[in-house]
Model the fold of this input.
Amino acid sequence: MNVQVEKLEKNMAKMTVTVPAEEFEKATVEAYNRQKNRISIPGFRKGHAPKAMIEKMYGAAIFYEEAVDIILDRTYPEACRESGLEIASRPEISVDKIEKGQDLVYTATVAVKPEVELGEYKGVEVVKADSEVTDEEVDAEIKREQEKNARVVSIEDPERTVKAEDIVNIDFDGFVDGKEFAGGKGEDYPLTIGSHSFIDNFEDQLIGHKVGEEVDVNVTFPEQYHAEELKGKPALFKVKIKFIKEKQYPALDDDFASEVSEFDTLAEYKESVKKQLKERKDKWAAQENENKVVAAVVANAKIDVPDAMVDTEAEQLAANFRRRIESQGMKFEQYLQFTGMTPESVKDNMKPQAETTIRTRLTLEAIVDKEKIEAPEERVQAEIERAAKQYGMEADAFREAIGDQIDALKRDLNVQEAIDFLVAEAKLVDAPKEEKPEKKKRAPRAKKAEAAASEEKKTEETAASEE
Done:
């Protein structure tokens, strides 16, 4: 096998690989053996027709496609090693020469790892994340706990009207241009007022109405609606309110605190909630500060990222996204149907994130190299022990099982060391305080009026005391 490399523009390269004729012939024989049981030739039992006979009847090219796949599997990895390139994308393969008895020639166009021109990376200044916990946040957290313990009760009062946060049961029938439309009809539908699960201001128009009333609800479908025929269209829904339920919340007192926590008083419970929120916000702030520092360093670097590299990363992100969707019990095809997306548009949506991921990784790797950063062995061992525990293995057995992948693990830890280094070097500054608006100066006439009123009040008080 012979490999020739041609550097192209924008961090692309083309490898031309020549495979000897005898290797190509061996691949066609293997392709014949894989396919012969599926090929019928008059006068021969299926699977017993000679290769030459099949090629005579169908042409020599009948086995070429599979033979090329066999050749690529065997030669492409070795060609990559021989090229000396740091390949960063899937190859775009083109067969340049394929002929019986001749050498096979194919080209592989790939993106190569781009050079990184680091900008300022030590001592970057960022506004640090605020980790203070406000009373409003504590109240909101307790409100969520109160929500969990709420009771849903049916409203018996016939004069009671629908209000925000009620749960109503409705029948509805939708019309566009005076005609019913698919998916616009429902019976016994439970709807929480204020959930915004229906389009436009549908829910708001039910407020103030009673059980048994029939309400005309007028809405407009959004321009980005998934059903093409309904985009931007005004619609009328005829709605009947069948019953109303409301949430009744427990009182926020010591009894509530003792029921939902280990504390006897509401004050103690609030203090505990505040402490937990502070711990969470501290962790969030540390991560946020890290993200800000890394983003600033990446923004200062210059990298010419090839499109093919972004495409490859976006494909991986899209594949991961698909697995997450399916792990939640939804078929990916259903997700595409509900959202009106296609596999290609999902991938396209991933491209900005893919480019950010690539730029971040390349920048951090460049800093690792420049600063000669290496994760200490104790950190490597701690990560191995953590991963081994996750798989229910002993650390030594896990280390042996991953083999050469230990190098990839070390590279990842080196990158994390680089992040720790950047954060330690960074300048985290407080956000500028909002200036309070100056008090308006009162006009002289207003001051005189105030003074006169004050004197009048004193006179009245003196007179009252004399009486």
Observations:
- The two ends are 121 Å apart (CA to CA).
